[in-house]
Amino acid sequence: MKIRANGLQIEVEDSASAVADPAHKQRPVVLLIMGLGMQLVAWPDAFVQALLAVGYRVVRFDNRDIGLSTALDHLGTPKLSWTLVKLQMGLHPQPPYTLSDMAADALGVLDALGIERAHVVGLSMGGMIAQRLAIAAPKRVLSLTSMLSSSGAHGLPGPTPTVLRAMMRKPAGSDEASVVQSFQDFFQVIASPAFPIPGEEMRAAIRLAYRRSYRPLGTKRQMVAVMTDSERAALLIRISCPTLVLHGRADPLVPFANAEDTARRIPGAKLMGIDGMGHDLPEQAVQLLLQALIPHLQTAQLRTATGA
């Protein structure tokens, strides 16, 4: 369903709208924020179903410029290389929009659904947006979980050379076969070495996303928002909610040192590294993530209920 949030049409999937039991709407809410260029359907069903099974209401949505949410093509095509050059020169290029704008979108989703407070879980870029949300609206965030993400601090390690080369390769065309092959090649480079995803399973997920929506320019604009979000690291000390940082120790896109830095900067944050996990969500890794995530949510919920 589409809702109006922060002046945009945002595509939302709310578990409360899929069940007849009115009590479901009163469950504590987990808001899931997906990463760069990825749609709400990228959250594995096993991840969502596990949260539902232990009593949560799950809300996920397409970030602006991606999926079925409002496209912002009128903002033009960003020049990623020129943006990078300006940043290296110490300049402050103006992005089409910021991660703070995207955090305001997430807050707008909560407002539109009448949700006062939520547990916020963000993956990769979604973790950065979740951090921004916890900074900007602390009273609305019951807990924060930053997964496979970063503080954005200067000097942290970036993608490996192999990943950088894979990121620079463009699909041979915009047809389904070309795009699916291109994404599969890239996902295999950032995949979890200990938890390989079968090729056909990966291709099926990519085809689903392509047929639902394919917006490469939206991904570029989101990338510029990530690249120019340079002040967030210094603000993480303001986050006061219970925070969990989850990360793959074998992540070649956002190396584990990024998670260590994030956890150091957020007061009281807990860090869990998963051996053999890269920058994806294979089934075995999802189960390990849930073993840490669900107790984190439950502890934060108990703390809220008791006023601790």
Strand elements, count:
8
Order of helices and strands: EEEHEHHEHEHHHHHEHEH
CATH class: Alpha Beta
| Content-based structural category | alpha/beta
CATH superfamily: Alpha/Beta hydrolase fold, catalytic domain
Unreliable segments (pLDDT under 50, ≥5 consecutive)? Answer: none
The amount of helix comes to 40-55%
The main sheet orders its strands as 1-2-4-3-5-6-7-8
Distance between the termini: 36 Å
Any idea what the radius of gyration is? 18 Å
Largest sheet: 8 strands, mixed
Q: What fold name stands as the CATH topology?
A: Rossmann fold
Continuous helix count = 11
- Taken together, the total number of domains comes to 1
Can you tell me the overall shape? globular
What's the mean pLDDT score?
95
Task: Please summarize what this structure is.
Helix content is 43%, strand content 15%. The chain is an alpha/beta fold and 308 residues long. It has a single domain, classed as Alpha/Beta hydrolase fold, catalytic domain (Rossmann fold), CATH 3.40.50.1820.
